[in-house]
Amino acid sequence: MTDHTPESEHTAGTAVRLDQGHVQGTGGVPDRFENPGLPPHVHRAADLDDRAARRAERIVAGLFGLSMVGTLIFLVAYFLVDVETQTFVPVVGRTSLSNVLLGVGLALALLGIGLGAVQWAKTLMPDEESVEERHPLRSSQEARDGFVETMMEGGEKAQLTRRPILKGAFLGSMALFPLPLVLQVAGSLGPLPKNDLSVTWWNGRRDEQTGLIVKPEKKLRLMTDPENKPIRPGEVTIGSVFHVMPEGLLEEHGTHKLTEKGKAAVLLMRLKPEDFQDTPGGRKAQEWGYQGIVAYSKICTHVGCPVGLYEQTTHHLLCPCHQSTFDVTNDCEVIFGPAKRPLPQLKITVENGYLVADQPFQEPVGPSFWERES
């Protein structure tokens, strides 16, 4: 059968192979492209009117000043506002006044610098279009020698020398802005262990007036959290886990109650005597326990997350944050994960029928990147 379909219909919608170096419909690649040129330059108000330029200068300086105010708010909140002070924020509800002021201050510091830089570039910095022919990428000695001159010329065009208010406001905002970042990185890692993490409620309570440690007059009982009831050894069955606090802490009403609870939190569990390994760690775990009942700090030694998962069949404690795994049968040694130190053990015994702490933790609790003593 003869196909009478026109050739144009065969090629419609079909990719046509082109010879390399050719463009369909042009007959090939042109030797050069015409320079489209630049659109006519439109002058800004600040380029033509000195009053508009001064007005733009004041706006930029005001924005940099806003950044300085935000930084000062951050510093005042960081050093002077108690983290326990509460305030009401619409939509959010009641929250820490310190956190609100820190967030608002840092936001103003960033926003002021950002908006100030944008306004400066759009109103006062040169915006004339220019064309620079491509040249070899090797810098000549003349280019190096002219670098300083070019920078000085750029500063002159940016009107730094003519407008000292602008320069002062910009430098002031840039000088103050890094302070919140330095405080966040260096100052918010927490106190040194010798000042804080080596002292928990098991050692004694810290007097809020003098800052001194008041040691307990008797051995502290282990209390269930949150019921605040003392624990008898018979109540701790094989496979059960108790979240424990020291006696008196749950009844405390001081401003540092949450901090003390976080440091003193303990996990209590019971194993069969034969489940402990015959190693120095396993023998210590039994000696510091009572009839197979052992107590360990709940704070992971990696970054301080709460260890809260106990696997009865393997006797492993698991931190849910980064999967650090501790072996209860061998003094909570690390067997998996990023933690580098075992969980500190609380030595326990029995008095008047209840479990008590025979002595406090012998090393600081918490992350292992702090110094520890055996």
TrEMBL record:
A single Gene Ontology CC term: plasma membrane
Q: Main localization of the protein?
A: membrane
State whether keyword Electron transport applies: yes
Family as reported in the entry's similarity comment: Belongs to the Rieske iron-sulfur protein family.
Q: Which PROSITE patterns match?
A: RIESKE
Q: Which residues cross the membrane?
A: 59-80, 100-118, 169-189
An annotated Gene Ontology molecular function = oxidoreductase activity, acting on paired donors, with incorporation or reduction of molecular oxygen
Outline the extent of the Rieske domain. Answer: 263-357
What are the subcellular locations of this protein? Cell membrane
Signal sequence, renumbered to the chain: none
Positions of the UniProt region annotated as Disordered: 1-41
What stretch or stretches form a coiled coil here?
A: none
**Record's protein name:** Cytochrome bc1 complex Rieske iron-sulfur subunit
Which intervals carry biased composition (Basic and acidic residues)?
Answer: 1-10
The record's annotation in PANTHER family points to: CYTOCHROME B-C1 COMPLEX SUBUNIT RIESKE, MITOCHONDRIAL
Judging by the UniProt lineage, the source's domain of life is Bacteria
How does this protein sit in the membrane? Multi-pass membrane protein
Q: Which UniProt keywords apply?
A: 2Fe-2S, Cell membrane, Disulfide bond, Electron transport, Iron, Iron-sulfur, Membrane, Metal-binding, Oxidoreductase, Respiratory chain, Transmembrane, Transmembrane helix, Transport
State the function annotated in the UniProt record. Answer: Iron-sulfur subunit of the cytochrome bc1 complex, an essential component of the respiratory electron transport chain required for ATP synthesis. The bc1 complex catalyzes the oxidation of menaquinol and the reduction of cytochrome c in the respiratory chain. The bc1 complex operates through a Q-cycle mechanism that couples electron transfer to generation of the proton gradient that drives ATP synthesis.
Per the UniProt record, the lineage of the source organism begins with:
Bacteria, Bacillati, Actinomycetota, Actinomycetes, Micrococcales
